[in-house]
Input
Amino acid sequence: MPQLRIVVLVKQVPDTANVTGEAMKEDGTVNRAALPAVFNPEDLNALEEALHLKDRHDARVSVVTMGPPAAAQVLRESLYRGADEVILLTDKAFAGADTLATSYALALAVRKLGGADLVLSGRQAIDGDTAQVGPQTAEKLGYPQITCVSRIDELIPPVVMAVDDGRRAGGFVTATRSIEGGFETLASTLPCLLTVTGEANEPRPASVKLVMTYKNAVAEASPDYDDSYLDPDSDAAEVCLLSRTGKPVCRARIVQWDHEALGADREALGLRGSPTRVKEIESVVLAQSEARMVEPDEAGVNALVHELIEEHILG
Amino acid sequence: MASAGGTGGGTSAASGAARGDVWVVVEQHDGVMAEVSLELLGRARELADTLGVAVGAVVAGAGEAVKALAPALISLGADTVYLADHGDLADYLALPYTRLVAGLVRAHRPQIVLYGATTTGRDLAPRVASTLRTGLTADCTDLRIGDFSAKGETYADLLFQIRPAFGGNIIATIVSPEHRPQMATVREGVMVMPEADESRTGAVFEVPVERSSAPVAPADRIVLTAPDFAVTLVRRVQEEKRVDLKGARVVVSGGVGVGSREGFALVEELARTLGGVVGASRAAVDAGWVSHEHQVGQTGTTVRPKLYIACGISGSVQHRAGMDQSARILAVNSDPRAPIFAVAHYGIVGDLHKVIPLLIKAYRTKA
Output
């Protein structure tokens, strides 16, 4: 059992810089297939924090995402950077979830993984910009939270008791978060959930070696959680690389869970479990130009400034 | 208004007669209230008047500094101030404040609870929403009361929670038909600050708060226990706010068209000449020409000055969302097709390195 267990919550998002009218469906929801899908930027920062901690501690980094089967791509991207195990939550029952129903499913997944010492996610996703899923998942898990973290100052892993069924005790994290016009530093006992901003770090690129290992990793349904493939002596561990320490690192697969695997209450999932509804969506459209054009010369500019002073717009 | 659905639903029929007050969770630090909280009181007053209910303001802290806030909250529109004064609430922390707000909501059942969309409000509100298993909409730019129909049911007098999404490319109206309270965080600077009316009267309800090790909480008070203090504040550093974009009469902003840090000096000189404040688009901030506190737009500050001058700013939706309520807008851009001209009152197509000196000269001569 590693000293530090980290779960990173990530999301595949449409690249919101390139939204056109064709990307909107008539019911007001978004047709994500019409947009390029990317790894939510701040979730990459969260993953980087996890991998950075793994570089310094004996840690296991698990990455969880909820989404359609295609969202497995962000899990592959996580493996390419050094994640140890990845889980895809995919099921029609999850569709249409708002932040409350999403956090319910994510919290169940963290529980199914046996809990964590640290849960990390990006502060917000660029499609909705709500910043709600992190705190709501923390609440569902009964973990404290530190949001908007721009720096993890210190982390002391918990002590794993040799007796008492491997119970974990102690451990804490100190982190700095940006607030309006300043910052604050908070200390929390573990377990704790942190949401991370883009200021925190520069995410590492994919490792060529890991890309070669994992590029064909496919999602497979495995409702019964089994991490034996992480064990180098297991039969499931077919392909192994040697790590810097000489220990074999084994090929991961993308574990796929549906609502039954999570043991979820269907009423609390997806659209059914979501208190909020989208009433309507309006595209932001440019107004017809009404600007009065002024010549870019001395006469034109003088007349404009004169008018603004006359109208007391300029004092 | 009656429910259109016959036997279905069940909870919707109750919405015909809107019940429960409209609350604002007020953010304060060392006795200074966040401006967005006060702006929200103005809108809460309007919403409550539409619904025929009262306005509640929840404020927490420790000692005289927080006690002294009640009269101001009443003068700005609150009918009842829920005042939680306890040493353990001196600094904002997510867990004890969640305990407090969720406990008060369960006891007093407001129909709407509003928070400022500050880092504090966006830390607290989701945790409260999850605790209460109710809906929450983030970072709203408008709030209204209206009816909503779906699947043969009509829900009267819901809170329309209006916000940009998808990077500002769409405006979504969100409702929470069957869950109460309806909750939203609201962006700073989009609601108008109400005028204080010292003659208004209201009640102050002192919230009983205690720290206890007893696992069972009595229903009539807020009980904070050890797990609520898993997180402790090590230190808080508040830098002096040097840029007052919100209060500026004139804002002169530069964008990517300014071209360089040196070019930005021209924007600064125009702002100084006109007695204005320097603003910037996100691109100019990302380029490192000017600090983030100058940023105008969706991820920066929302401004509504008497005059907004956009220099070399193309006018992305994200930027326009933060300045299109300005009384007058002057756009200077070398590209006649730049979207900024669509929201501008005056446009100058030309090289800003020539036009800005002309503006400076013209103003110095006239004024």
Remarks:
- Residues 310 and 331 of chain B are 5 Å apart (CA to CA).
- The two ends of chain B are 59 Å apart (CA to CA).
